[in-house]
Amino acid sequence: MGAILIHFKTQKIIFLLALALSALFNITFFSKLYDFALLEQNYMIALSAPFVMVLLYIFALNVLLLLTHRMSFRIGVALLVVISLLSSYFIDSFGTVIDKDMLINVLQTDTDEALGLVTPKLLLYLGLALFCAYWMLFRVRIHFRVYKVEFVQKALVALVSFVLIGGVYMAVSKSYSSFFRNHKELKMYLNPFFPIASASKLAYASLKPKPIFQTIADDAKKQSEAKKKLVVFVVGETARAKNFSLGGYEKPTNPLLAQREDVVYLSNMSSCGTATAISLPCMFSKFERKAWESEKEQYENLVDVLMKTGVRVIWRDNNSGQDKNIAKRVSDALYYKGVQFDEVLLKDFQENVDKTYEDTFIVLHQEGSHGPTYFQRYPEAFKKFTPTCDTQDLEKCTQEEIVNTYDNTILYTDYVINQAIALLKKNEDKYETALIYASDHGESLGENGIYLHGLPYMIAPSDQKHVPALFYFSDKKKEKALHVKAKEALSHDHLFHTILALFKIQTSEYKPSLDLLR
């Protein structure tokens, strides 16, 4: 193994780790803290925060490592370094908040999506993390005293640091209380303790027994009509309303849909969440956003209600995250593998429509504008806005290049939606048709140093929550009725009830107040 170069006692290791965590791994936390403090001229916070942070980490590390000794101490420190380094990459590079929902997203990420996040910088951070872990486990000579002495020492240091923190707080409580009450989101950037707390919450939730699966709308009945209904729901991915020219964006990102007079664009639609793992199940749920939680996935959803009333449901999925179990009871579901362009969703459209004549609901789940590999989401013919960012390493690109590449994904979505409407129009002699498009969530493209999506809803910028939505109807009365609401504040909460109304399904679960066609 070579010569041993470093010799430390446990408290020196803890002190140096506390300094490193404060100075190196919490850049985003301090950046936001100083932005707020200087804006509010709260100089007491600005001056004392680094000192309090070091004390806080000394206290927390002694508590976390209280029961460890020898190899378990080494493993604990090594894990903290690895978690801190990898968390700091995502927090500092993308403005990511690593909460429970974000960790659920990570666990549900497939190989293609994960590879899209791999950059030289991430590999550098990963290599550095592994090197530090190896050094701590095998190279650093640590002088351990007997377990009882180590335990008492950690407990005493934790107690002293806690008292010092309390003393500082008492001395400047007015400044601290109001500041952190007004900026609760700061705690979400504390690395590594907020990610560790989030992982603990996720572990606790996964260990809890799942609630019994619940059926809904057992009283549902569909009004039968001679002319059947054909409804297409295009579920968008990572599209934000800000970049839809239908909503006033200066670039012509919707040239085909803009030419149509039969499309109703809803300019003020809010998403249920800021990540697919939350928004997608919520979009198909009877529950509204404020009542949504992961346990609600143990209820039947919209497609279940449609199927139990005799509606034929077809699910086509090109999304790397797939359907989040929404379509697991749908017999006609197809999932495309690998990187494919979204027009593949329309490949068997007419063939499916011609198989039988009945009320039909077709879900087309896009890969849409999923980043950071925006450049892989559209064919070369749609590379209209240039220069582009043709790499997943967004730090190598200017914001103009990132936005141009993203805008090309919206341009391609415009084409896919227009093609779907054209297919519907070919069937309007037999069917009453409708198309719904709504994105699951939005995206940040570098505004205020934030990229991608998935921030907690309470602190997420509007770019991640304000999503595009539009409707097409062959029935002009419905089109006219919806035009009246085109600029109203609407949300994903309306989708469940509006789609029930489109198929004229009567059930106690239906809420007229959330039906966009009333």
Overview of the structural elements:
The protein is an alpha/beta fold and 518 residues long. It folds into two domains: 7-207, no CATH class; 222-514, Alkaline Phosphatase, subunit A, CATH 3.40.720.10. Helix content is 44%, strand content 13%. The protein contains 18 helices and 14 strands. It has helices at residues 10-23, 27-39, 43-64, 71-94, 100-107, 111-115, 120-139, 147-171, 173-182, 193-207, 255-258, 276-283, 302-308, 349-355, 399-425, 462-465, 476-483, 495-502; strands at 7-9, 141-143, 221-222, 228-236, 263-270, 312-317, 332-335, 360-365, 431-439, 444-445, 451-452, 466-473, 490-491, 505-506. It has an eight-stranded mixed sheet with strand order 7-6-8-4-9-12-5-13, with helices on both faces. Strands 1-2 form a two-stranded parallel ribbon. Helix 1 (10-23) crosses helix 3 (43-64) and helix 5 packs across helix 10 (193-207). It starts with 6 loop residues before the first strand and ends in a 12-residue tail after the last strand. The mean pLDDT is 93. The chain crosses the membrane at residues 12-31, 43-66, 73-91, 122-140, 152-172. It comes from Sulfurospirillum deleyianum (strain ATCC 51133 / DSM 6946 / 5175). Its main location: membrane. Keywords: Cell inner membrane, Cell membrane, Membrane, Transferase, Transmembrane, Transmembrane helix. GO terms for molecular function: phosphotransferase activity, phosphate group as acceptor.
